[in-house]
Design goal:
The protein is α/β, with parallel strands linked by helices. It is built from 8 helices and 5 strands.
Length: 150
């Protein structure tokens, strides 16, 4: 089964509006294995506590905690988040995503962040937008195997 790290922007967009991010989170565990670490979940928690997000989503602490618990279950077990790598330039805040992709042996890092998308790969991890990753998942064989490359 494909293993994928979903960027915080994907995990939060899932709650904000319908679209590829929502579809991906709903498919996690069924069509791909979600790979997350404690640092990524901490960032999601931080973003979901921002007043603008709380107002827009009418989030209560209970709702936020339930969502984080759901992500933990979908990603069980969590990647420890102990791997240290050089800070990603131009945005060091993206470093935990890259570290998680390495530590969790992810096939894909799914993001809407253009700086990460410009990398296209990081070691053995391919970097894709939510829409592109959905297209990849749709092309999988029914048993979860990827079709052979031509």
């Amino acid at each position: 089964m494909i293993r994928a790290v979903l960027d915080t922007n994907v995990l939060v967009s899932n709650l904000l509006c319908p679209g590829p991010s929502r579809t991906l989170v709903s498919q996690a565990g069924a069509t791909f294995q979600l790979v997350l670490s404690s640092p990524i979940l901490a960032e999601v928690d931080d973003v979901l506590r921002r007043p603008r997000i709380v107002r827009k989503l009418h989030l209560t602490e209970e709702n936020r905690n339930a969502y984080l618990d759901r992500l933990r279950l979908l990603s069980a077990p969590l990647v420890p988040g102990l791997l240290e790598i050089d800070p990603f330039e131009p945005d060091p805040k993206d470093t935990p995503l890259l570290a998680c992709s390495l530590e969790g042996h992810a096939d894909y890092l799914v993001t809407g962040d253009q700086a990460l998308l410009n990398l296209s790969t990081y070691h053995d991890t391919k970097i894709a937008s939510p829409r592109a990753f959905l297209d990849i998942l749709e092309k999988q064989e029914p048993d979860g195997a990827q079709p052979p490359s031509l």
